[in-house]
Amino acid sequence: MKSHIIVGLLLPLVKVECQTSGLPSCPCVSPDFLSSTYWRLNKLHVPTSKGLLMYDAADTFGSYCASWDGDLPGLCDSPADCQHFYCYVDTSNCSTASYPSSYFQGMDLQYSYLTCGDQDSQDDVLKEIRTQLTGQTLRFAYPASSRPWHYQQDDGWTGSVASFFQQLKQTAGFQTLQKSVSEASLSLYASPWDACVHDVRMQLIDVCVSVVMETDTRRQMATFTSPILAGSMKLMVHKEVTDNRWDPALGYESIWFSFLKPFSPFLWLLVVLLIFTAGIFYYLVEEEEDCNCGTCLHPRKAATGLMAICGGLHQGTLAFFAGGDLGAAKAADTKTRAGSAIRVGFAVFTMVMVATYTANLAQLLVVDAQQSTGIGSIKDCDPPTEMCRKVCIIQQQLNLVRAQHPTMEVVTFPNTGDLIGGLESGECQAAVVPEHDVRARSDFQEAMCANGFHLVGDPVFTVYVGFAVRADLVNALSYYTLTMVYQGIFASAYDQFRYKKIDTCLEEETSSHEEGQLTALDMAGVCLLFTGFLFVAVGLRLTKHGVHKVKSSISLRGDQRDLQETKKEAMEETPKMEDLENFPADKMQEVETSVR
């Protein structure tokens, strides 16, 4: 992990008591010298400004607060020069100022005076680093032209890093002499960034100015300033989506139920319970005699509790959808003050709920149920799967990737530019890319928008970006870079020069629906629900019509049967022909009328 150099220099410096093991917020640590190149012949060899000195004591050098320089014979010209109390610390667990070790380069060791209460030494360091760069001329080089970090324009260099470095030069008061990366280093490394760091090691330049991602191999060649940014390395993959808005399993995200989205399921349940409860209370206080739920539940045939429930369901549901007035659910005036209070409260409740629902409906009803499919995280690639067989990485991060994902199949590239090409050509199904490059560089964004790439999952790991610098200058440059980063100067330059097509590209993806504009598809759920009610109503109507027709048919058959029996009886009462001559005229008229 990259050490946060001199973190806390900008905080108020306070006197602290000397702590043998350091402050609780920044404890001392014991370095592992036994496995380092500095441990030979059972002795610790310490490279100093006075040459290679031997440390031959039992205690581990720098493992607790002490004047360790006094234990290096020949280093100090006088006893006063060796009274600096310090110890080595873990910068990931230290909230005070610390500095990279000038003795043990390559071990990523940081030491701190403040954790040991040595304020005087801390003040001396600050005084030294604030004036160290003033009037000096620093040789620097850009690894290569790289938008938007540093590129040539109008016979000069510009870009976010170039602009930041110019402001750093003015703030610290030093002069610059621009160089080019040496051909010797370029012949050794495929990456010009590696070559630039190697030139610092060979003392051909003092500073390699760029967004140099720190790796193990680069830290072995040179020291780095405090990070100008910490970047997440994330997985870039082809974007695959599926539109399954008709799948009921999506719940509120599906077409079928999208109209319910303004309220959560629990809130819907609460609303329904309140509607029924209000109706039941209103029914009880108004002493309704008929629950209107059918003759099967007539008050004379049902218990009082069942009558109340039935009446509540009827009153409450009808009133809510009729506008909230419980009295409107029946053609009668309120009989009691309690009933009036319930009516008013229920009307207010209904008004608020309907208004809340309506206010949120336009925004929430537009369903976006497109779900990303395919590779979702590094877990899909380690171990390799049919979906993700190989992952593209840059060569400099191979050891780090191997350490964290030993079973993952990788394809290495010398730089991040070639990395995207590997993903485009199908050499791998995913690529580990720096997010700060994705948000800034045109080649990344053009490839993403053209090929439908996107970033998925949590960061695979974090990289720190700084300047590779000569070891004796690292503290002073770190002090000023840290100050300017805290002031937001680099963030401002980053946003000014970064390529912004990805912003437009992402906006185009998310603007398929205008905000607040509903379509027929968005209303499909509620339309289907209303269609269902229509079918139920038609079914009830047809059922009622069929029952009525059956009853009419039965009644007609009964009438016809009665008519036939009447005719039969009339015929039996009709006199025979031979008796007609003696049949009275008035009786004859009655028979004719009956027959008709």
From TrEMBL:
Signal sequence region: 1-18
Keywords for the protein's UniProt record, in alphabetical order: Cell membrane, Glycoprotein, Ion channel, Ion transport, Ligand-gated ion channel, Membrane, Receptor, Signal, Transmembrane, Transmembrane helix, Transport
Compartments where located: Cell membrane
Region described as Disordered: spans on this chain: 561-596
Domain Ionotropic glutamate receptor C-terminal: 267-530
Basic and acidic residues compositional bias, start-end: 561-579, 587-596
Membrane-protein topology: Multi-pass membrane protein
Chief location: membrane
SUPFAM superfamilies tied to this protein: Periplasmic binding protein-like II
Stretches that traverse the bilayer: 266-285, 344-366, 523-542
Database matches in InterPro entries: Iono_Glu_rcpt_met, Ionotropic_Glu_rcpt, Iontro_rcpt_C
Record bears the keyword Nucleotide-binding: no
Classification via Pfam families: Lig_chan
Protein name: Ionotropic glutamate receptor C-terminal domain-containing protein
